[in-house]
Request: fold
Amino acid sequence: MLNDITLGQFFPGDSVLHKIDPRMKIILMLLFITSVFFANNYYSFALLVAGALIIAAVSQLSVMMLLKGLKPIIFIAVFTAVINIFWTKGENLIFEFWIIRIYDDGLKMALFMVLRIITLILGTGVLLTYTTSPMALTDAIERLLSPLKKLHVPVHEFAMMMTIALRFIPTLIEETEKITNAQKARGADFESGKLIDRAKAMIPILIPLFVSAFRRADELAVAMECRLYHGGEGRTRMKVLKLSGRDFTALAMMITFSAGLLILNKL
Reply:
């Protein structure tokens, strides 16, 4: 199960999406997220799903990998759908049994919420983390937040912390999987017993996981100090970010997509 989590992973490639400037990809991602929450009828959600599928196709990433990335959110999507089906009231009652009442608006809201969650995870993952290396992401965040330096905000440190956090998510997931398997080999049982017993059974996993995380953080800090790493003023970059016509074309397409979605909302 943990191996199915692809959050924060970067998959190298040579697609158009991989070549887009990371600063522009952050802007595209924000526009896409805004579009996801603006959709409110069947037409706009149809366009939203089509947009997410086009973004996935342009990235040239494996379909199986993209589906694997959606697997961890199945429970959240199903739980959200069930909540909306049974708690959303409407005018047309289509099913009633004892205290259970299902309205057409509940089914409609459940469908919209599931589509919203799936397109949000798929679109933002493909637009940013799947196709952007951690170093490029650090540079992009730092450049976009650079105006805050005038207010003495530690922009570089903030960008570096965010990138390291994203970079280490797959590592921690892998570490958790290894510790879990090691504890199972010793006879640990994580699947039976009451909720409190299951929570207690997680302690032998959490303690070595925290120790491992702190050890990795310490090793990373030592490695950075040994290489005389320092951020902020005077730091040079191997790859200088430069916007091109391809980036502005992608921005124009995303703006057109968002405008089309707003128009469809009024139908």
Remarks:
- The beta strands are 93-97, 100-103.
- The chain has eleven helices and two strands.
- The mean pLDDT is 85.
